Amino acid sequence: KAGVTQTPRYLIKTRGQQVTLSCSPISGHRSVSWYQQTPGQGLQFLFEYFSETQRNKGNFPGRFSGRQFSNSRSEMNVSTLELGDSALYLCASSLYQGANEKLFFGSGTQLSVL
Amino acid sequence: DQQVKQNSPSLSVQEGRISILNCDYTNSMFDYFLWYKKYPAEGPTFLISISSIKDKNEDGRFTVFLNKSAKHLSLHIVPSQPGDSAVYFCAARVGAQKLVFGQGTRLTINP
Predict the structure, then answer these.
(1) Beta bridge mates, A57
(2) In principle, which of A37, A80, B26, B36 could form an S-S bond with B89, CB 3.0–4.6 Å?
(3) Local structure of B82: helix, strand or coil
(4) DSSP letter string over B22-50?
(5) Residue B31: which of B53, B49, B47, B2 has the closest Cα?
């Protein structure tokens, strides 16, 4: 069974541009979450989607948005990029959106904003 | 507001000895706790979890302890092996809400 796949692995953008990151969950998983990892800050929750609906949202500005498609694949978009958006963006999937569900992570997309 | 805190950014342990990673939390509503391990250039992988109704869970060399009164979680690795060198994240959640992660602790196992 293939794991969580994130594309692209690396991305370099300049300030003011916008970017779209893609995530394909493990087959059969219906819940997808996105996290931002920066040094010293750990993993900061962005949002979670289940059956194409956003179920939870973190404390990020509106420049960060996402969506989930009917096949559970998810995309995350960041508009008007800022230098501080440079980070590793991780996608995770789980079977359901349940209390004891474990998240399975992809390898992430490393975004550098110049 | 950091609800889950890992106050040690790094830890160095000799091979064969016990590694103890600590995690403190502030939200008493957390009812499920997990530890993840992360190697460079890879995503975090699930290691072990514990429900708030338990105070200990063991899986091979890994044991997680939960002290609810102190709002403290710890991960014990015995014996430590070179392959255990990684960044360890503790995480917690309330019901089906988002998983909240700590900042991570970099564990280095020295031969």
Answers:
(1) A47
(2) B36
(3) helix
(4) EEEE--TT--EEEEEEE-TTS--EEEEEE
(5) B53
Contact B101 A43 (CB under 8 A): yes
Residue A3 is which amino acid? Answer: G
pLDDT tens by residue, B23-47? 999 999 999 999 999 998 889 999 9
- A36 CB neighbour count, 10 Å cutoff: 22
The residues pairing with B89 across neighbouring beta strands, listed in sequence order, are B36
A95 touches chain B (CB under 8 A): no
Do B51 and A100 make contact, defined as CB atoms within 8 angstroms? yes
Q: Quote the CA–CA distance of B46 and A44 in Å, as a whole number.
A: 17
Strands A109-113 and A10-13: parallel
- Look up residue A72 and give its two tokens: 């559970």
Chain segment B63-110, per-residue pLDDT in tens: 999 999 999 999 999 999 999 999 999 999 998 888 999 999 999 999
A60 touches chain B (CB under 8 A): no
CB–CB of A75/A20 below 8 Å? yes
Nearest to A90 among B43, B51, B102 (CB): B43
Burial of A32 per CB tally in 10 Å (0-12, 13-18, 19+): buried
Residue type, A17: Q
**B111 burial type by CB count under 10 A (0-12 exposed, 13-18 middle, 19+ buried):** exposed
